[in-house]
Amino acid sequence: MIALCLFAPFVAMLWVGSYAKTDPAFIGIPFFYWYQMLWVLISTALTMIAYKLWQRDQRARATTKGGVEA
């Protein structure tokens, strides 16, 4: 799940054919530009989710490891 969160923005941005157009425009901004700016926000959210998942995994490993040694 962590890898998917981090990999999705790369796929979205590298698949240029999917957003190399001007329509639909949003507030006069061509699709090409607002799609990329939207992915900046989406990437931030996905990176934050990946980090929280990684933290949760690390806490679970520390708890398991601490329980075995005690």
Binned strand content:
under 5%
Radius of gyration: 19 Å
Note the run of SSEs as H and E.
HH
Helix/sheet category: mainly alpha
Major β-sheet annotation: none
Describe it:
- Pfam families: DUF3311.
- The chain crosses the membrane at residues 30-51.
- This is Integral membrane protein.
- Keywords: Membrane, Transmembrane, Transmembrane helix.
- This protein is mainly α.
- The model has no long low-confidence stretch (mean pLDDT 89).
- The protein contains 2 helices and no strands.
- The protein has one domain (2-53).
- It has helices spanning 2-14, 31-69.
List the defining traits of the structure above.
elongated; mainly alpha; transmembrane; transmembrane helix; 70 residues; 2 helices
What would you say about this model in short?
With 70 residues, the protein is mainly α.
Task: List the topology elements.
Blueprint: H1 2-14, H2 31-69
